[in-house]
Amino acid sequence: MHVTAMELENFRNFKQAKFCFDKHRTAVCGDNARGKSNLLESIYFLAIGKSGRGARDRDIVRWGSDFFSIEAVTERDSQPVPIRIAYDSRVGKKKAFLDASPLPRLSDLVGRFNAVLFSPEDVDLVLRDPPQRRRLLDILVSQCNAAYLSDLEQFRRALSQRNRLLKENSHLDPPKLMPWNAQLAELGARIVLARLEALDEIRPIAQDFYSRISATPEELGSAYRSLVKEEERARAQEILADALLDRQAEEFSLGYTLSGPHRDNLLFSLDGRSAHKFASKGQLKSVLLAWKLSEASFLESRTGYAPVLLMDDIFSELDGKRADSLLDLVAS
Question: 285 near 92, Cβ under 8 Å?
């Protein structure tokens, strides 16, 4: 799986630009502020339909313009697969096209082209911010599991509705929340189980990559913190349903839902110590690089296709030994 050609219009600093890429490896070089990171962001857009940097669509439109478009030819099994994404800020709508045919939903694009993005700005943001760490798992699993993405979208809609009821009806009869509780417990259980299953597979791969990058005996650990303990997976739906019921009085007071996968956490550790609390910048970057390389391995094992690996400014903060080890890994 790879990208052979791309055309950008009004995307970030690109008014109009065309690119061609080698099937195996492409190095993008240039002075600062020329758009290297923006180019990688546009490629990742093809995989998830939005910015991997968390930017709003209207903020991606080139200054003075009112739309952007990304057109690319991707290849899978030696067959060309054209993808186009267009956003119009005047109406606030974004559309995706596959083989020139419009997709009913933007989320239908996810899984058609897989990519993994490493960005240096992610190091502090991702490793120190719980929602961003959950997002790591959500994007990863969604790219190889359409059912997971559907569950995630339904869960977010149900959660929004339940939170609205909690905020607007402080004296609402608790039984009226039961349909939402049942929906959140069922969907939430499937989400938690899929995350745990993915982490089971990716954990040893990430540890192996970290050992090879760091060339130290440090052990990278990754754990999922949830109301549902790993040994209680069979009871996931029951546990979430009980928690939603037990905390309703507190939720009415606060106006939002306190239990579910939206409150869970992915934690990284080095030799048993919290990485986001104690690790140096070089160690944190090595952790995220190891995770991203293991994401690529995971996606290839699940889909049968190696994803496009997008690596931005990967050597800063790394000492010479780690930089050499990383270069050997990426080259192989």
Answer: no
Taking residue 5's Cβ as centre, other Cβ atoms within 10 Å add up to: 15
Domain range for 262: 127-302
State the virtual CA torsion across 194, 205, 224, 310 in degrees, nearest 10: -80
Task: Return d(Cα 119, Cα 313) in angstroms, integer.
Answer: 7
Q: What confidence tens digit (pLDDT) does each residue in 1-18 have?
A: 899 999 999 999 999 999
Number of structural domains in the chain: 2
Q: What residue type is assigned to position 87 of the chain?
A: Y
Helix and strand tally (H, E) in the chain? 11, 11
List the one residue out of 214, 206, 181, 217 whose CA is nearest residue 296: 206
Over residues 183-224, the pLDDT tens digits come to 999 999 999 999 999 999 999 999 999 999 988 889 999 999
Residue at token pair 């990485």: 275
Residues in a beta bridge with 83:
72, 98
- What are the helix (H) ranges across 17-112? 36-48, 57-60
**89: CATH:** 3.40.50.300
106 and 133 inside one domain: no
Instruction: Name residue 208's amino acid.
Output: D
- pLDDT higher than 70, residue 26: yes
Q: What pTM, to 2 d.p., does this model score?
A: 0.91
CA distances from 270 to 127, 223, 298, 319 (A): 13, 12, 21, 18
Which residues, at least 6 apart from 64, have a Cβ–Cβ distance to it below 8 Å? Answer: none
